[in-house]
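Technical annex, item 7. During the second reporting period the consortium partners agreed on a shared format for inverse folding records so that results from different sites could be compared directly. Each record opens with the tokenized structure and is followed by the designed sequence. A conforming record, contributed by the partner at site C, is shown below for reference.
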């Protein structure tokens, strides 16, 4: 089947493994360094003297801005150039990390402005980096070479997210302190810039995106912003308060307006035809649902620190099994994709992930028993995501034409960011609601053994974690429904109604 467009890139240029490493390092600037706040925010809050509400906002606002603007950046990458957006994202990462590293202690508005401003820049950074990087991988690699490149991209994302808790806790516990995390992020970003230097520009062919759909973009951003603020700030605003209900109303109105705009235009902000392909829609949907499991990290790490008095480093050690498993099984997922096709490894991955989170939710046990189950649970969590990552990502990107590479990558990673943000927000909210329950009622059930002084915390943790189990179960069902049974290596890019154009075969993998 003919691909829908080409990209303007030099056919004589070949990517090298050092170039691929530069892409991975660009990705890691978010998933390893920016996400460390999930674990080290208590120490940052204490040192800077900021209120709990602002600290919680600092955790969630990065994923919020990433999720809102990642599709916008993907469209701009296709239109203005993927290399340009990649570089822009790396520069924004440097500025964001610099702002956080230099945040002053107890300086009032200046402290909160630099902390939140840095986190917003980090969100905008990943919004630029992720879709641009995925579009460049699709442009320069094909077939098994692309699947290999996608595996390394997944190592940067899932591996970085697995290492962030352990890495952040370790750095915060050393004499270097938590600020060193962000200085190291700047160094990694500079190395990334050096490794990707000389990359030829790549963009959609002139005329493929003749006009930019401003109404579609504006209504899209408003809808996502309103629903994210409702979810993340619901506990503070009150779920049924006039402000909260107003946010829901804004979400509905903006969403309806967005779909009306997109249905009546030939040049759209989001090409809804992409979702006519079951493989693309299934990969994006299951990716969103599985990423809500990020709430597992913040609940478990917060629970053991609050209920047992553990340090952030001790809590981070619980996730070492996740880190080892996800890093060692991502390439396994790539091989499973090549042998069985995407459906089986995606199903196996979701099932194993759900089992691991279920083990982490058994907070009614004694601490020693719970620690053993949690270590095993995180190892299964990482194994499942390792199986799932490359088959899902490759399925999404293989299903779209080259002209939509940036936008499609943006939509896939938007699902990641929004799933992450919503998972953290909802899990944290359920955790807080459970903690507020009368401990005498919980004790009367006779389920929670051991120390009874912290049963409310443990009950809240169980509720927050079981939510993640349910979301993974829904992800499993979505994979079974949307990802067709097909032969390994089957690939049929979606055609879009933009007129026939010539094929340009992507260059082979360089050495």
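Designed sequence (site C submission):
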């Amino acid at each position: 089947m003919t691909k829908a467009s080409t990209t303007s890139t030099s056919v004589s240029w070949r990517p090298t493994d050092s170039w691929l490493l530069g892409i991975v390092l660009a990705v890691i600037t978010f998933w390893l360094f920016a996400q460390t706040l999930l674990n080290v925010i208590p120490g940052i809050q204490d040192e800077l003297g900021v209120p709990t509400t602002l600290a919680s906002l600092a955790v969630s606002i990065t994923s919020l801005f990433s999720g809102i603007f990642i599709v916008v950046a993907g469209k701009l990458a296709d239109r203005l150039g993927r290399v340009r957006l990649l570089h822009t994202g790396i520069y924004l990462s440097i500025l964001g990390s610099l702002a956080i590293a230099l945040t002053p202690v107890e300086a009032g508005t200046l402290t909160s402005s630099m902390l939140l401003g840095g986190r917003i820049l980090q969100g905008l950074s990943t919004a630029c980096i992720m879709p641009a990087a995925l579009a460049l991988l699709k442009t320069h690699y094909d077939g098994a070479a692309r699947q290999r490149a996608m595996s390394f991209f997944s190592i940067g994302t899932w591996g970085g997210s697995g290492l962030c808790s352990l890495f952040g806790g370790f750095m915060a516990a050393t004499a270097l302190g938590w600020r060193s995390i962000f200085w190291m992020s700047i160094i990694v970003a500079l190395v990334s810039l050096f490794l990707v230097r000389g990359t030829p520009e790549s963009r959609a062919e002139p005329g493929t995106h003749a006009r930019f759909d401003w109404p579609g973009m504006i209504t899209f951003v408003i809808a996502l912003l309103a629903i994210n603020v409702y979810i993340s700030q619901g506990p503070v605003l009150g779920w049924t308060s006039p402000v909260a209900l107003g946010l829901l109303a804004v979400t509905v109105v903006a969403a309806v307006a967005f779909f009306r705009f997109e249905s009546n235009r030939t040049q759209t902000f989001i090409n809804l035809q992409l979702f006519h392909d079951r493989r693309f829609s299934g990969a994006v949907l299951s990716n969103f649902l599985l990423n809500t499991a990020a709430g597992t990290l913040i609940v478990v790490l917060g629970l053991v620190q609050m209920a047992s008095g553990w340090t952030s480093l001790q809590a981070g050690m619980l996730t070492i099994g996740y880190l080892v498993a996800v890093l060692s099984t991502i390439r396994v997922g790539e091989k499973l994709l090549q042998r069985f096709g995407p459906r089986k490894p995606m199903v196996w991955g979701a099932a194993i992930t759900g089992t691991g989170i279920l083990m982490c939710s058994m907070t009614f046990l004694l601490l020693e028993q719970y620690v053993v189950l949690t270590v095993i649970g995180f190892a299964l969590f990482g194994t499942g995501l390792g199986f799932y990552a490359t088959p899902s990502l490759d399925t999404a990107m293989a299903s779209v034409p080259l002209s939509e590479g940036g936008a499609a990558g943006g939509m896939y990673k938007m699902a990641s960011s929004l799933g992450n943000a919503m998972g953290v927000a909802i899990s944290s909210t359920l955790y807080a609601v459970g903690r507020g329950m009368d401990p005498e009622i919980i004790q009367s059930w006779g389920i929670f053994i051991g120390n009874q002084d912290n049963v409310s915390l443990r009950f809240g943790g169980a509720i927050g974690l079981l939510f993640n189990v349910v979301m993974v179960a829904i992800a499993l069902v979505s994979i079974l429904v949307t990802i067709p049974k097909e032969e390994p290596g089957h690939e049929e890019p979606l055609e879009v109604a933009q007129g026939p154009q010539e094929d340009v075969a992507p260059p082979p993998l360089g050495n």
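The CA atoms of residues 99 and 114 lie 6 Å apart. The chain has a mean pLDDT of 83. All partners now use this format for quarterly exchanges.
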